[in-house]
Amino acid sequence: MPLVLNEEQAMLQESARDFLNSQAPVSHLRTLRDERSETGFSRELWREMSDMAWPAMGIPESHGGLGFGFTGLGLVLQECGRTLTPSPLMASALMSAATLARFGSEEQKSELLPAVAAGEQIVTLAVDEQAQHRPEHVSTRMGRSGSGIVLNGSKRFVLDGMAADVFLVSARSGGKRDDPQGISLLLVNRSLPGVSVTRFQALDTQVLAEVEFNDVQLTETALVGQEHEGHALVEFALDTARIGQSAELLGVAMEAFERSLEYLKERKQFGQPIGSFQALQHRAAIVFGEIEMCKSLVLNALQMLDGHAEMSAMERAEIASRTKSKMAETALLATAEAIQWHGGIGMTDDFDIGLFYKRARLLDSLLGDRHFQLDRYARMRGY
Amino acid sequence: MRSPYETEADLCWGGRNFQFQSQDQEHWLHRMAAKGWTAPTWPVEYGGGGLDRDRARILKEEMRAINARPPLYSFGIFMIGPALLKYGSDRLKQQHLPPIVRGEIRWAQGYSEPNAGSDLASLQARLEDRGDHFILNGSKIWTSYGDKGDWMFCLVRSDGELPKHAGISLVLFDMATEGVSTRPIRLISGKSPFTETFFDDVRVEKDQVVGELNSGWTVAKYLLTHEREMIGGSGLRQEGEEALGQLAIRHVGLKHGQLANPVLRSDIARLEIDGTALGLTMDRARDEVKAGVSLGATSSIFKYYGTELNMRRQDLLMSIHGLHALDWDGPQSEDGRIPRSWLRSRGNSIEGGTSEIQLNIVAKRILGLPG
């Protein structure tokens, strides 16, 4: 498949950029932050995004989606990265929807996917329990009581957890604490008795949540896929999400780089634009080259997602980990360089560039940072 | 011809004096050349394969599938051929392209001079008009395999009065012409893949100027983009070459299922990912050219990035092979292949325009930075 966008995809990207620039530029994020938004994103904006069918793009037509594909959704995420626009698009419409579409029962799919596609329901993955991302490390317990399921435990750092209607929760149904076997994946409605959610403010712009489950009573229909076999589903969800995060990181890196490049041309010291100094020219050229490499990795990964029928779990893991590892490293490089090129003003809160740096770090850290991904890549490659 | 080549000496370079290493090598060249597949995308009228990019890619994939070695490795194909196709007269194309396709003539590049390295356009080799022919005097340095070349494409100063970029021409001549001599340059690798080349009243025919007289700088830059892409390609894993991680498992060993040295392991993983990214980006650049949305100046990005990767890889190979990698000429060392390749690779970021020159080009031409 050629590594270029088709006409439809290019048009979508352009219209997403226009919309976000007018409706949700970086100042939108500042407003959410300064108002200490409960959910971390604007419900009103989310409705507008839903009206444009953004959450429907990756969901099959048979379940209320557009079936436009993950490449298209990735391009929209990339544009959201440029404006740092927060929304549940990645967690709900990509990560959770793709997992349900692939592994959910017919009943689960028809109940949830049309609502996710319409933006009416927000579904997210609750996987981390500790500061180090280790998805097989699960102590949240899935027990049995009579014919039902009882859930106890807590999850932390849950993406869009404050707004989520439904959680996909990894729980231990058997095996030991770090055993990939014996993990089950459960759909848990936020409104159920025993579910409580606490807000967690991350790096001053993004809202995460801690979710506690206290004797939550579930029925058999809460189980996604086979009992004890949930780890593969969690990996699928995470790898899909990591590719989505990479698309967003690409937008973050490109925007920070382009803004800084303009600054190099405008800012004068010693009577000349600082961009005429070779020390800065070479750094700019290196960052540019790294971003070009990342563009190819990200587009390739999105295209692989679109053709996922032929991709094994190992291949998916290798592609997701290599893409996120390289992309996160590059986004951190580009945004850190951006601060340096701006000098003192880059350190101020009034100026936007620091917000890009924070977003890059946040996306790097969530769902496995670049070191985690590099280690995992090597494991997938057999060494 | 279905096993990976290990050094440049295993390649078929062609030329008047080339000694085939085996009959297979000779057959493979002749059979592929007969179909024009040594230069698959060149027009049929000049002996090429006449394939479009997609078909050429299929041919490449098929050759990879059977682990086939390239039938011919030639500066004629990588460098002067594309320049002739774009800027040469029909006469020059008819004269020079078919022998390149058939591997009959080996070409050498006359670009750098002792006082014109990164500042290539300050070159001084002097071409004088003598009525029905030219006379060339001066010298070149860093001529790759200058002692094995049959013909040379050579950048010369054809008008000393014009500004430095304007008075340059690209001329072609037979290196057997009287007055051409070479002297090998010994590198830190102990090998001599380059020569100095001297011109003492060398006769150059008037019809052997590529493009117009004094417009050689344009041709030279175009040719350089091909050279840079070729050098950048050295950053990719070569056909049939074992993946670094697998090689490391054999030489370094595993501990708890992972490479025994975790720092080396992460360096290898980074390099593998960067190599994949470079390969995909080269693919993407080709797709973008086809779709008409190319950036231009991408050869400088590839040259910079590819050479950095190859240098990192050579360094990792030294670590992976441990103390064996120090073996300079012992019976097991294949003539010191590993340490000599490692040393040779330091030149990657110098030849064909240094890394710093590539970054200058990216900064000015793509990023539009001033100065």
Strand-helix topology:
The complex is a heterodimer of chains A (383) and B (371).
Chain A: H1 7-23, H2 26-34, H3 43-51, H4 70-83, H5 89-103, H6 106-117, E1 123-126, E2 141-145, E3 148-159, E4 166-172, E5 183-189, E6 195-202, E7 206-218, E8 223-224, H7 231-266, E9 268-269, E10 272-273, H8 278-306, H9 313-342, H10 353-365, H11 370-380
Parallel strand pairs in A: 1-4
Antiparallel strand pairs in A: 2-3, 3-7, 4-5, 5-8, 6-7, 9-10
Helix pairs in contact in A: 1-4, 4-7, 5-6, 5-7, 7-8, 7-9, 7-10, 8-9, 9-10, 9-11
Chain B: H1 23-34, H2 53-65, H3 75-87, H4 90-101, E1 107-110, E2 126-129, E3 133-144, E4 151-157, E5 168-174, E6 180-185, E7 194-205, E8 209-210, H5 216-232, H6 244-252, E9 254-255, E10 258-259, H7 262-291, H8 298-321, H9 337-345, H10 355-366
Parallel strand pairs in B: 1-4
Antiparallel strand pairs in B: 2-3, 3-7, 4-5, 5-8, 6-7, 9-10
Helix pairs in contact in B: 3-4, 3-5, 5-8, 6-8, 7-8, 8-9, 8-10
